[in-house]
Amino acid sequence: MRSWLSAPMAAAAVLLGVAPATALDDEVKTFTTGFGDWIVGCDNTRFCTAVALSAGDERGYGSHLFLTREAAANAAPHVAFGLGYADGTDKVGDKVTVDIAVDGPHPAHFRAVTRKPDQFDAALELAPADVAAFLAAAKDGATITLSYSGGRIGAISLDGSSAAMRWIDDQQKRAGGVTAVVARGPAPAAAVPAPPAQPVVRLAAPIAQGGVPHVLPAPLARREDVRKCAEEYDADDPHGPGVNRLSATEYLWQVPCGIGAYNFTTLFIIARKDGSGARSPDFWPGHPEWAVNGPDTLINGAYDPKKRVLEAFTKGRGLGDCGDEASWAWDGKRFRLIHHAVMEDCMGVVSDHWIRVWRARAL
């Protein structure tokens, strides 16, 4: 095996079989905890998301429903659909009228027009005026069927829909009030408390990247975690460490630590140019359960010095329809989490529709 400890950086790669972040019991409620085929969760501002999965043989690649709602008292639910990757859905392009049929005790039909496909998943949004009637029918139904003039698109399961919507009502403090979807009562909208404020992160000033070193300094190369990465990392090409300047005195060192088919692991260390003063980026303070790969190691992590933002995207499988995505903003002293979303199950759901569990504003 080649050592990369003194080689220039090259394209990194991936650790196969890396599990997505699944230890989010307080943030993400899934169908394993009593919501049937619905996955539900809320973020730190009480913004909530529910994803209903495809039914029958299409499960894993077919259509899904995407329900979101902000926590403000006057915020209305929003309903969209992903048409999925199942056979035939690739023929549904832009501006196709789709029929949405809800079965059950209160059957209902709605129509919507697809918007331009994003990657491989055409999207569909329900008109705001139809959302209340749709949810009223869906909470007691069994299946949603999507079709168009060219034939059937797919089916979405409503097993767990009522419990999932009731859970969101409760998380957003709407239960017992007129703004609830399922747990309705007489309490006025004014009884819904204001949501928690979204945290604000002040970005550090951009800093020039010229003249950065290309060789891992000796104090870092001697570290046990770095040496362990050198032992575990195996590639045909001598990929090496990357580095970005964070400030006048500190650098972000990025050490390749694992490679596979569609994920690569990277160990991140903050240190001076000569490797002294090394410290942990500590990406998950207060949430050790999110640090499934350790506090300093990210999957598919990359830092953009122009934006002062570091992003990571763990793929649960090659399709990239499950896993964990997060981003951090550099404030001049540390990286602060500004986005975190997860999808525990590989069910054909594109990352735009994953369950968001944290958000902050970077300014």
Count of helical regions: 4
Secondary structural class: mainly beta
In helices, the fraction of residues equals under 10%
Largest sheet: 10 strands, antiparallel
- The tally of structural domains comes to 2
Q: Quick one: overall form?
A: elongated
Distance between the termini: 44 Å
Number of strands: 21
Which stretches are poorly predicted, pLDDT < 50 over at least 5 residues? 1-26
Strand order of the largest sheet: 1-2-3-4-5-8-7-6-9-10
Cα-atom Rg, whole angstroms? 23 Å
Q: Give the strand content.
A: 25-35%
Arithmetic mean pLDDT:
84
**Topology pattern, helix = H, strand = E:** EEEEEEEEHEEHEHHEEEEEEEEEE
Q: Could you give a quick summary of the protein structure above?
A:
By secondary structure, the chain is mainly beta. Helices cover 10% and strands 33% of the residues.
